[in-house]
Amino acid sequence: MKKLLDGTHRLLRWLMAATVAILIVPVTLQIISRYTALIPSWIWTEELSRFLFIWMIMLGAVIGVREGSHFVVDVLPDLPPRLDAFLQIVTDLFVLVFALVFVWWGIAFVRFGWDQTSELAELPMAFIFMAWPVAGVIWVLFLGEAFVAGFRVLAGKTDR
Amino acid sequence: MMSAALAPGAAAIVLFGTFLVLFVLRVPVAFALGLACLPSLIIESRLSPLMLFNETFKAYNSFILLAVPFYLLTANLMNVGGVTDRLVRLSRSMVGHFPGALAQINVLLSVFFAGISGSSTADAASQSKIFIDAQVREGYGLSFSIAITAVSAVLAVIIPPSILMIVWGGVISTSIGAMYLAGFLPGLLIAAAQMATVHVYAKIYHYPVYPRATLKEFFYSAWISVPALLTAFIIVGGVLLGWFTPTESACVAVLYTIALSVFVYREMKLKNLYDSFVETGRLSSVALFCVGTASAFGWLLAYYQIPRALLDNVSTWGMGITAAGFFIALVFLVVGCFLDAIPAIIIFGTILQPLAQSVGMHPIHFAIIGIVSLAFGLVTPPYGLCLMISCAVAKVPVRFALKDTMIMLVPMLLMLAAIIIWPDIPLILPRLIAPELLK
Fold first, then answer.
1. Chain B residue with the nearest C-alpha to that of A98
2. Spatial distance between the Cα atoms of B105 and B93, rounded to a whole number of angstroms
3. pLDDT at A43
4. Cα(B24)–Cα(B31) distance, integer angstroms
5. Alpha carbon distance B74, B335 (integer Å)
6. What ipTM was reported for this prediction?
7. How far apart are CA B280 and CA B275, in angstroms?
8. pTM for this entry
9. Is the dihedral of CA B93, B74, B284, A60 positive or negative?
10. What are the angstrom distances between the C-alpha of B332 and each of A2, B90, B326, B341?
């Protein structure tokens, strides 16, 4: 199971890096086409870059849950390890609620976009809206892993 | 008038109350904002949780915000491509002989960095790695080193280019070119205040000094930095002259930095490039994800007309421009303690804009007050991203560097007061260079 999650994590990270890299292309084309006659001024460049951008954000937000890179604020004092693990589980439960919202209404969201195509590039909107439920499902997986780790600390099996 | 199940007051309590409880429980801020929207979305018969998707989608589907990953990428590429090293060398030859040499270099490098990248978090992340360890080894206090690195990083969003100005321009429709010009002087003043602070610290704690660089060394380091410093002119000039949009200018900065690293400085390796992409994606996506949920939160505030309820009170106080300026700065400073700057602009910038307008404050003056205050919010706890990043690099809790950060903020706040009292400080440059943008 851990291997599977690690693999997913690596794949998503690679995809995210790829979206960052590819993002440069349409914006560059947009600038080049304005100043030279080398390429026609395609109108889809702006839209394509926005859609890549959306996927980049969602991919990063997904792996952020496993890497703990979403910003949290520490106003509470340092807690003993078991209390800390308990609080972490409570926190993750809230994130889980959010993840489930993303899955449940995300599917409705994709259905809603099923017959729509984008204005300029005529891409099916479902490809974009899909990012939300996909993020939700992978969050649930990553959170499951965190719960197992948390309960082990609570049970006193490890002390992190 | 639409009928909402909750009155503005009750809705405000539900929204802010849920957010604050989750926030204290250490739920990540992005999720806390999103979860706080849920009760209203479920209670109100006219709304549904689908709104959450619509609003986040609309927020991300924005060409303007693309500048965020581009500026982070520029910063990351500067570090791996050798641009930063050359700017450090130039800074050293300029201020290395001042008391507190390395800390002065730290501030000056932030000024140069700010002229190329528009991201304070990127500045904090990269300079923490460069300076904190090095300063401690030379005998500077750890908490001082963290604090000066974090507070100097805020310059990146005040001195153009600036992600915050791009977002501000997108949300409140203000000329980004004019804001760029207006940011210069305030940024330099705040940098000067920081260097003075370092000077005082250095005198009290006898921090080390480097031998004065020879004139030859100065000219040489300036010469090799010219291509890097040109970036600032290309970006700011390009926007002012209308060569490209602000977002495109951020992309140009990326391309130019890649070209510099590959063809001029020749230090870029493929592995570095991949790491820069990952680092950029990681930091920009968590920051932007939060922008999405904050937009949904802000949308609900507007739905319940909470801003109007709040401002009805304030507008009866009969404030002048200066009083309103202090009020606006205070609101942004307080909000900046709890929220990242971009969501804060989206939620509160739009709330305060009518107030600024009603007292006759110049939109650019309003923008600079807001952006400087929010930039200070990057180092104020509990949610001060730059301070959090610097402390994370040094592996100490945030409260460790709190005292020195607060001390350094005092002269910076005086500069903010000066900017509020004398609107000419931000307005003089745009007036001289591009008066047509001020209309």
1. B35
2. 9
3. 73
4. 13
5. 28
6. 0.91
7. 8
8. 0.88
9. negative
10. 44, 35, 10, 9
Q: 10 Å Cβ neighbour count for B424?
A: 12
Give B-chain residues touching A61 at CB under 8 angstroms: 30, 285-286, 289
Q: How far is A105 from chain B (nearest CA, A)?
A: 6
d(C-alpha A45, C-alpha A51), whole Å: 10
Distance CA B379, CA B132 (A): 16
The DSSP secondary structure of B103-132, one letter per residue, reads HHHHHHHHHHHHHH---HHHHHHHHIIIII
Task: Pull the structure tokens for residue B100.
Answer: 């507190």
pLDDT at A81: 82
User: Stretch B70-78: mean pLDDT, rounded?
Assistant: 89
**Nearest chain A Cα distance for residue B49, angstroms:** 7
Q: What is the pLDDT of residue B1?
A: 43
The helix-helix angle for B215-240 and B83-95 (nearest 10°) equals 120
CA nearest neighbour of B6 among B227, B305, B357, B208? B305
Q: Do B53 and A64 touch (CB under 8 A)?
A: no
B5: pLDDT strictly greater than 50: yes
- State phi, psi for A117 to the nearest 5 degrees: -120, 155
Asked whether B386 and B154 are in contact (CB, 8 A), the reply is yes
B233 class by beta-carbon count within 10 Å (0-12 exposed, 13-18 middle, 19+ buried): exposed
Confidence (pLDDT) at B180? 92
B269 φ/ψ angles, rounded to the nearest 5 degrees: -115, 155
Across chain A, which has 160 residues, the per-10-residue mean pLDDT values are: 89 93 89 78 79 93 89 77 88 94 91 79 83 94 91 73
Could you give the CA distance from residue A24 to residue A31 in angstroms, rounded to a whole number? 11
Whole-number Å distance between alpha carbons of B346 and A134: 27
Q: Give tens-digit pLDDT for B203-260.
A: 999 888 888 888 888 888 888 888 888 888 888 888 888 888 888 888 998 998 888 8
| C-beta atoms surrounding B438 within 10 Å | 15
* Cβ pair B277:A21 closer than 8 A: yes
CA distance B402 to A120: 50
Residues B215/B138, Cβ–Cβ less than 8 Å: no
Distance CA B351, CA B337 (A): 18
Tokens representing A30 are 């947009």
